Amino acid sequence: MGQKRRRGLVSFLRSVGRQMRLSDFFRLPFLNDGEVGSSAIVIKKATKVGAPVAVIFSSVNSNGFSYFKLFERFEGAITRIYVRDPSDMWYNNGVSENLNDSDKLFQYLHKTIRELKPSRVMCFGSSMGGYAALRFAMSGHVDLCVSTSPQTILDTRLPHTPKEPVDAGGYDLRQDIEALDHRKFLLFFGAADFVDVFNVLRVHWAGATVYPIANRDHLVAEYLYREGVFDHVLKSFIAGESAIGEAISSVLPALDNRVFDPPTFEAISRIVESYYLAADWDLAQLAVGLIEKDTWADAEHILSQYYRKKQNFGAAVDMANRAFKSAPASVKMAEALASTLRSAGRLDEAVEAYERCLEIRPKQYSALCALAELLAEKGEKAPSLRLLLKAQEIRPRLSRAFDLQKKLHQS
Predict the structure, then answer these.
(1) Residue 37: pLDDT above 90?
(2) pLDDT at residue 61, as a whole number
(3) Fewer CB within 10 Å, N or C, the chain?
(4) What percent of the chain has pLDDT over 90?
């Protein structure tokens, strides 16, 4: 080891704590200016001393790091700290043997940021990453927290939650968030997804900038990335602008401000609580009440699933079609229609619906697997295998596509 590199190692060990053993260093999931690989944290420094810092928390099932291409466009102007959770437990179990809970992870990140002496700090993420961004902003100083489609309660009965329950400290963020200054929070969510509406608006955001994106679902972050909204957020932050919401107003897509209406939000909350959390509300009456007043894709979708559970497949398909027509850009509505058609035994229509779903989002893992399974049942093994191989490439840590391929080879 060269003299300069040896001094660098010694300096780093001192900086992370005098009580740390050498073996602890090798358990840190850390690469400084490294390549994106198996590490859970990668730091890539800006060329400018004192540049702002962004901590980017990856979403679930990330093979590399979420939003890597987005942030690398600004490599000279901002230091990037990429973080991912290999266990997909919403960062509650930390990211490694050494940083094995969220408190240790956040303390480590804050310490690293202080040593960088940045001019400003932001955190960023969507879904699981959005939840982590909120918690990181709650744990120490940040100037801006950009959180898209975050969970604020990790009840495992809700969609987009961990596979196992989490400890009380990470379960419900509402009370701790409401105790903060909200001016540093910039939130986006899909207004066509009632669970996302519920997660965000169950918190009373006093002074935060909150954008409900019309006709979009939980995957709204992909749309915002494509439309350049996140690009503008980063440019504004790097430029030192404080009113980020105003700075991006020219590129914002259509909003659905109906969700801010108190009676409407109360109905949405009760629908979510009834459908997912077994609350004793009249689900059908609530959903029909919203639909009669206006177009609500997720009310139609949930009512479709209500009919489906009751084996009323005719009504289920009709309502699923309505939901898809109400939000034709929503992969959730497209996939729900396909799944409902399949349950109704209308397999040819289901194949077409899954194909439409994949036109909206070619990397929709569950739709790739479902369509592959349907085609295999129809004896179309070659296209089924192609879909499964694509699904495996997209989500190599998930087993469904591999299990279906094994089944396909055995048939």
Answers:
(1) no
(2) 84
(3) N
(4) 85
- Distance between the two ends of the chain, CA-based, in angstroms? 56
Q: What distance in Å separates the CA atoms of residue 339 and residue 351, rounded to the nearest whole number? A: 10
Decide: residue 107, CB within 10 A, 0-12 exposed, 13-18 middle, 19+ buried: middle
Q: Under a CB-based contact definition with an 8 Å cutoff, are residues 193 and 275 in contact?
A: no
Domain 259-410 has CATH 3.40.225.10: no
Q: Is the dihedral of CA 182, 183, 186, 191 positive or negative?
A: positive
Distances (CA, A) of 294 to 122, 166, 272, 298, 327: 38, 37, 18, 12, 13
3-state SS class at 148: strand
3-257 and 259-410 share one fold: no
* 246 confidence band (pLDDT: 50, 70, 90): confident
pLDDT average, residue stretch 182-201: 97
Which amino acid makes up residue 65?
Answer: F
How many residues does the structure list for the chain? Answer: 411
Instruction: Yes or no: say if 122 and 112 are a contact pair by the CB < 8 Å rule.
Output: no
Banded model confidence at residue 39, pLDDT cuts 50, 70, 90: confident
**Cα separation, 404 vs 122, whole angstroms:** 42
Residue with tokens 């986006």, as numbered in its chain: 188
Q: Are 80 and 54 in contact (CB under 8 A)?
A: yes
What are the extents of the domains in the chain?
3-257, 259-410
Residues 280-330 pLDDT 10s: 999 999 999 999 999 999 999 999 999 999 999 999 999 999 999 999 999
Query: Among 329, 322, 187, which residue's Cα sits nearest to residue 259?
Result: 187
pLDDT above 50 (res 26) = no
Distance of alpha carbon 337 from alpha carbon 387, whole angstroms? 20
Please report the sign of the dihedral spanned by the C-alpha atoms of residue 391, residue 124, residue 268, residue 297: negative
Q: What is the pLDDT of residue 62?
A: 76
pTM of the predicted structure, to 2 decimals: 0.88
Rg (CA), the chain: 23
Residue entry with tokens 């040896």: 6
Instruction: Identify whether the C-beta of residue 166 lies closer than 8 Å to the C-beta of residue 90.
Output: yes
Q: Which pLDDT belongs to residue 47? A: 87
Q: For residue 269, how far is the Cα from the chain centroid?
A: 20
CATH number 3.40.50.1110 is the correct assignment for the domain at 3-257:
no
